[in-house]
Amino acid sequence: MTPVQHRSHVDDLLSFIRASPSPYHAVASAAQRLEKAGFRELRDTDDWTGTAGGSFVLRGGALIAWYAPEGTPAHTPFRIIGTHTDSPNLRIKPTPDTGSAGWRQIAVEIYGGVPLNTWLDRDLGISGRLALRGPGGTTDSRLVQIDEPLLRVPQLAIHLDRSVNDGLALDPQRHVAPIWSLGAAQEGALLRRVAAAAEAEPDEVLGWDLMLHDIQPPGYLGAEQEFVVSSRLDNLVSVHAGVTALAGAPTAAGEPAYIPVLAAFDHEEVGSGSDTGAQSPLLERVLSRSVTARGGSAEDWSRALAGAFCLSADMAHAVHPNYAERHDPDHHPLPNSGPTVKVNVNQRYATDSTGIAVFAAACERVGAPWQPFVSNNAMPCGTSIGPLTAARLGVPTVDVGVPGLSMHSARELCGAQDPGHLAAILGAFVTSG
Predict the structure, then answer these.
(1) For the segment 326-350, what is each residue's pLDDT rounded down to a tens digit?
(2) How far, in Å, CA of 248 to CA of 257, rounded?
(3) pLDDT digits (tens, 9 = 90+) for 31-80
(4) Cβ contacts of residue 153 below 8 Å, gap of 6+?
(5) Is 158 exposed, middle or buried (0-12, 13-18, 19+ CB in 10 A)?
(6) Is 209 in the same domain as 241?
């Protein structure tokens, strides 16, 4: 990719992130982009018989999309890009109104592995979805996004806590109750605000999935703007790259060797154990129905899986310049040196030599660099949806990711070239042999 292409891709990525403060918004943003590329939504309750072309299924914060043009044999194997839409953050409790010492506050719960100190002294908005009462006992879901500085988790002044820098230890009971006004807590105040933002009445709201987000916009950093800084790089970098790759699939000439698939799951940061997570049967059911819709049999389904391959794309760790000893001494991934292939022999990642070869071949086709990543033996590594997908479908899987710093922070960093490299690699992976 040229510098202009890299810049154009990242500019588009930043727009995607701004529009996606919650998993539900990320799915809506992805669906909108796929629709522009000619994909159409299929509902679980629809009859899918005879459907062809680009299709996608939405469920909460998850999206499964695929492209199978007219005449594609039912046994055509899948090339699956696995990602996730959620990020560690602070989520609003069902009974949110609280307060202390004359301040109005809201009650939140910690979602995923949150470095709490990164959420202190930031201007926070609210996003997510509301479950609304509809006519005749029905319910409806509506997105809400308030990009205003409504809340803040204030840090205790160093004059009142001289040990504040000793290990940066925080007490969640004291530090994770954002303030948003003065005065005693008023019951229903938050509900009225978010309902108004969603153009609904408070008595219509039956429930919510609301969370806080840093309203500081994403952008560039560095002497040559060689870095990207933003909330939710983990893992919207990969979701955006997957959408970009899939949206380009209809332009590929000839009968496809593979059916390209994007699986963007929710709840990866808390174990993927939900109806929209990688441990659920969601992907398996959708792909199986897509085979049946093209007239396929159980044998065709088995053949499609037997030839399938999954690439799980999630953020990776670049070597930290101040803590290089925490990394493997012989594996120091750097930003702008290409995505990493993540290896762990204990199957925290699903990569093996076959997966490395498939990924390396895709990199060669687009002229993109890549780097190996292995955790320090003394530091247990994280995991991803790769092993879950491999175990669920019995499909060979490789784990990859853009290297960055400050993973799970309220504001993360990666190289400005690597997102474009990842998108190009994913495009080659799903469309080439």
Answers:
(1) 999 999 999 999 999 999 999 999 9
(2) 15
(3) 999 999 999 999 999 999 999 999 999 999 999 999 999 999 999 999 99
(4) 90, 119, 120, 121, 122, 124, 175, 176, 177, 178, 179
(5) exposed
(6) no
241 shares a domain with 171: no
* Same domain, yes or no: 271 and 398: yes
Residue with tokens 């990642």: 349
Please report, for residues 34, 194, 344, the alpha-carbon distance to residue 245 in angstroms, rounded to integers and kept in the order given. Answer: 10, 35, 27
Which residue range is the domain that position 159 belongs to?
89-214
The verdict on residue 165 lying in a domain is yes
pLDDT > 80? residue 185: no
Residue 155: inside a domain? yes
Structure tokens at 402: 């853009």
Q: Looking at the structure, tell me whether residues 63 and 93 fall in a common domain.
A: no
Q: Confirm whether 223 is domain-assigned.
A: no
Give SS3 for 86. coil
User: What is the Cα–Cα distance from 132 to 350, expressed in whole angstroms?
Assistant: 41
CA distance 180 to 99: 10
Phi, psi of 302 (to 5 degrees): -65, -40
| 98 strand-pairing partners | 105
- What domain count does the chain have? 2
| pLDDT at residue 253, as a whole number | 65
243 and 117 belong to one structural domain: no
What pLDDT, on the 0 to 100 scale, is given for residue 168?
A: 56
pLDDT at 260: 97
* Count of residues making up the chain: 433
Same domain, 329 and 423: yes
* pLDDT 10s digits, 271-318: 999 999 999 999 999 999 999 999 999 999 999 999 999 999 999 999
Of the three residues 214, 243, 272, the one that is the final residue of a domain is 214
Question: Using an 8 Å Cβ cutoff, are 204 and 15 in contact?
Answer: no
What lies within 8 Å, CB to CB, of 347 at 6+ separation is 387
pTM of the model: 0.95
What CATH code is carried by the domain that includes residue 12?
A: 3.40.630.10
pLDDT number for residue 183: 74
Whether 220 is covered by a domain: the verdict is: no
